[in-house]
Amino acid sequence: MFEAFGDALVQMFQPASMLAIFFGMAVGVIFGIIPGLGSVIAMTLLLPFTFGWDPILAMYAFAGIMGTASTGGAVPAILLNTPGTIANVCTTFDGYPMAQRGEGGRALGLAASASALGTLFSIFVLAALLPLAKLMILAFGAPDIFWLIIVGLLAVTFASRQNMAKGIAAGGVGILIALIGFSPVFGKLRFSLGSEYLWDGIEVVPLAVGFFALSELIAYTSRGGTIAQKSDIKVGIKQLLQGAMEVFKYPGILLRGSVIGTVIGAIPGAGGAVSNFLSYTSAKQSSKTPELFGTGFAGGIVASESANDAKDGGILLPTLTFGIPGNGEMVILMGAFVLHGIQPGRDLLVNRLDVVWAIILGVIGAQLLTTVVILLAGGYLARIATVPVRYIAPFVAVLSFIGVYAVRSNIWDVLLAVAAAIAGFGLRKAGFPIITLVIGFVLGELAEKSFVQSLQIAGGSYSIFFSRPVSIILILLIVGTLGYNLYKAIKANVDSKVTGA
Amino acid sequence: MMHLNRDRALNLIVYAVLMVFVSSIVIGSHVYEGRQRMVPLVIGIPTMLLLVGITVVELWPGLAQFNKAKGGGEDEPVPVATASGINAGRWQRVVTIFAWLIGFFVLILIFGYYLSVPLFLAAFFNREAEVALRKSILIAIGVSVALFLLFNLLLDIPLWPGILPMVIPSILGGGSIPPLYRGL
Q1: Fewer Cβ atoms within 10 Å of its own Cβ: the N or the C terminal residue of chain A?
Q2: Are A416 and A405 in contact, with CB atoms under 8 Å apart?
Q3: Angle (CA) B99 B19 A325, round 5°
Q4: CB A431 to CB B82 under 8 A?
Q5: Which of A160, A218, A443 to mutate to test the interface with B (most CBs of B within 10 A)?
Q6: Phi-psi category of B164—alpha, beta or left, where left has phi over 0 and alpha has psi -120 to 50?
Q7: Whether the Cβ atoms of residue A104 and residue A97 lie closer than 8 Å to each other
Q8: What gap in Å lies between CA B159 and CA B148, rounded to an integer?
Q9: What is the predicted ipTM?
Q10: CB pair distance less than 8 Å for A172 and B70
Q11: Quick check: A383 and A391 in contact, CB under 8 A?
Q12: Per residue in B140-183, pLDDT tens?
């Protein structure tokens, strides 16, 4: 395992690898800074263009985006009171008041430093847990994998805080879409309606580009206007360095934020926004001076930024070990795995450790680079957020249309992306969480494979799904989660009745 | 029953489309044998039931509340968590953006990327971003040249040349549309 780490470290310092990381970092920071875009759209747009790249270089580029978008999002959060990504919301509470006091540079330094340290913490935790995870996945059989997929889908559904029934239904629809076309499990065509286009099934790239990039484009272009307004921002280098060092005055907040980010990140669906709020409120509640939070307090920025970046290590854990993506970024990473013929889970941890280390080192490298970039040019970067969305939209459309076509040179893939964009917009408006649908789609084939394999192993008996210890634990988890959420819904109803009476 | 405003009408259309899709998979799975139809049924039937439930609740919102706390007639609009609250003006913008995307696809299908990208960019910048025509054209040409250099010369990825050159032979080579259906 650590031999592979040494090889990966050498590989990382190759010019092509450094270029890929730098490219990913630059894209991640820009998309992070522009409110409404973020890492998922950046990764979605990049996905098709990496087709034909060396898989390791592609992973460096993706890791570069993953590790930097939420750090980039801190820049407009502090200087313009507009969080670049949802994971930067709490950064505005103290960052913007600091900027208003003329301490924007100090706040940026704090954010950059806390982000880097949070990421490093979580990535080290991930690296330390990988050998353990490798042993753990060997204990997982086909029926356990099937239940794990259900757990993952339910976790994302509950975490998305949207209508529970719609979340589960969206996951189901996603799995059903994945069944269209040639089935490698049975070696037969299904649900292709005689269409030659559907022989290969629905491709992940047009679907992801349509659902994530284009449907988001429709949403923010229809809103119109400029999200962030100001552009006369001056940030001094002295303040930036002062802020970067000041983070060490808050070791408790930093450590708590990093731990919360890592743990919350590992829960599918939870991610940066939840860890951001949880870390901030926890730091405030445990503080001797809670009244300082929200007034431009340095500790508030440390709590927010350490947690939202520490999610990176945590969220990679279920994706790399079990192939269960916990958020949009991980769905696209799974898409990249598919595109480059990489199988997450056992195969990845046993045979493709070079890929695992490329992602880990890529995230670290990109995060460190971002810190330097923000320290050097934070004030100038904030101006990117003031670009009106109507200028960005046509470029997103052109990149999406070219990227989708470039993967298979099939013009109908572009039509599929447009259809997915329209469907995605409709689904969002009707309250269906798109992320659950896409995760269902990405996991659909694996769900069917593990289901059928289980039945084959058991000679057709369904008892195999309820007899293995791991399966029983997962079933209890499913029942417990469903029961708890149902209880909460009933309680809320009873409470509202009491309040109303 | 409830008021069928624009948001709710859209919700119902989405539910209907999803139900048609899921029921097609469930019913269609019967032509396959044994385990090939297992997962379509195991996932499809509960999904269908959920969608029916969601539709019923959308049509009769009162059913979602075990005991309605406050009064109000059946026709009283009940706020739905999923309702987007998009006003008519914004719906018009949404439809306009849809039209731009579909138009861009049709343009690409017919004329290919190299002609459609500058046309789309110039038109979008001029009409939607309200950039002066000359500036729009300059931006469009600049971006298109950059794309040509990047894809054709640097990455060696040939982009779709459009069907028009195929219809009018001996111009630019022409693109052959992959068949959607065999024989077409």
Answers
A1: C
A2: no
A3: 80
A4: yes
A5: A218
A6: alpha
A7: no
A8: 9
A9: 0.81
A10: no
A11: no
A12: 999 888 887 877 777 777 788 888 766 665 555 555 666 666 54
